[in-house]
Amino acid sequence: MPKYTYKCKECDHAFEAIHGMFVKLRNCDECTTDGSLFRVPSVAYSTKSKASPEKKTGEMVKDFIRDAKQEVKEEKKKMKEGRDK
Q: How many CB atoms lie within 10 A of CB 37?
């Protein structure tokens, strides 16, 4: 199922929802205003990298996972250093 981003025109509350493509949410749960939600347009997903047009989706996923693991490692290190002080 696709993920959609919604925003309320009245209170600026924004959130993501996963539902079928023909479902449209209309009422804000935060401020309870009827008909105040609108779908925020999202950037289309591309399976080709701008830096390397020949890069395959699997390679992009591997790169993403590698980068995410590195970020987690760095955050853990920062947290540990903060406790040791």
A: 23
Between CA 37 and CA 4 the distance in angstroms is 12
Mean pLDDT by 10 residues, the chain (85 residues): 88 90 90 90 57 71 87 87 69
pTM over 0.70: no
Burial class (CB in 10 A: 0-12, 13-18, 19+), 82: exposed
CA 73/CA 81 separation, integer angstroms: 12
The residue with tokens 């020949």 is 54
Q: What is the rounded CA–CA span in Å between residue 17 and residue 85?
A: 41
Q: What does 36-85 look like in DSSP terms, one character per residue?
A: -EEEEP-PPP-SS-SS-TT--HHHHHHHHHHHHHHHHHHHHHHHHHHHH-
